[in-house]
Amino acid sequence: MDVKENLALNLVRYRKALNLTQLELAEKLNYSDKAVSKWERGEAVPDLCVLKQIADLYQVKIDDLISKPKPIKPLIRNLGKKRVAIALWATSIVWLVAILAFCFVDIIIPSVSHTWISFIIAVPVTLIVLLVLTHVWGKNLWNHLCVSLLCWTSLLCVYLILYYLLPTPPKTLWEIFLIGIPLQALITFLFMYRKVK
User: Fold this and answer.
1) Rounded to 5 degrees, what are φ and ψ at 121?
2) Measured distance CA(3)–CA(155) in Å, rounded
3) Residue spans per domain, the chain
4) Do 16 and 10 touch, CB atoms closer than 8 A?
5) Residues 6 or more apart from 2 whose CB is under 8 A from it?
6) In angstroms, rounded to a whole number, what is the distance separating the alpha carbons of residues 14 and 57?
7) How much is the pTM?
8) Tell me, what DSSP letter sits at residue 172?
9) Residue 13 exposed, middle or buried by CB count within 10 Å (0-12, 13-18, 19+)
10) 3-76: CATH class
11) Per residue in 13-59, pLDDT tens?
């Protein structure tokens, strides 16, 4: 087997070990999925800079990519599970803070009503944490979902806070959700633009 064949086999194996599609890998590298497909079929070879990016992404050396395929290290296979664990830990911390805020205010200042708002605020904060993680991990579809949910839960959060904290909330307070329509359209447009680009 020559270097080109080794590279093609290793590119496929490492990509699949991370549960990435060719499109997701291409987006991380700012290349087209057609280029990734050619590399994996052995019809073309990425330049040295891109090869270094790929090696860093897969947490291997360039030599591992061009050498005869070896068993993939468990670190790569367990990366998806580690990411889920990190996301669970991060969101757990957000909800722990929300519970502590709820208990602290309820115990120390019992006259304050609507302490449950801390849980309402925890929802968009959780989505912000997940948005940061999905952005770092390059999961664009999840990124888009988090931004969309963040938009609507933030509006819901503002609505509920105003509804319960204002002495007499206006009857047209529901109109705050109309802001979400152009925001959602903008979010979707930007997601599609990034995908095409």
Assistant:
1) -70, -30
2) 54
3) 3-76, 79-196
4) no
5) none
6) 10
7) 0.57
8) G
9) middle
10) mainly alpha
11) 888 888 888 888 888 888 888 888 888 888 888 888 888 888 888 88
